[in-house]
Design brief:
- By secondary structure, the chain is an alpha+beta fold.
- It has one domain.
- Helices cover 17% and strands 28% of the residues.
- It has one helix and three strands, in the order βββα.
- A three-stranded antiparallel beta sheet has the order 2-1-3, with no helix packed on it.
- The longest helix is centred in the C-terminal third of the chain and has 8 residues.
- This is TrkA C-terminal domain-containing protein.
Length: 46
């Protein structure tokens, strides 16, 4: 679950229509931890 997006000096609480941009800093919580698959989704690398 993405719980916050930092974009420049702004902190955004994501909603269903929020778009993640290149360079955004994402705060995410995961019941099972952050896996290689999750990292790949956000960064393109494992």
């Amino acid at each position: 679950m993405v719980v916050a997006i930092e974009r420049g000096d702004e902190v955004i609480t994501p909603r269903g229509d929020t778009t993640i941009h290149a360079g955004d800093l994402i705060t995410a919580f995961s019941k099972d931890g952050i896996t290689g698959s999750v990292m790949h989704t956000f960064t393109g690398s494992k």
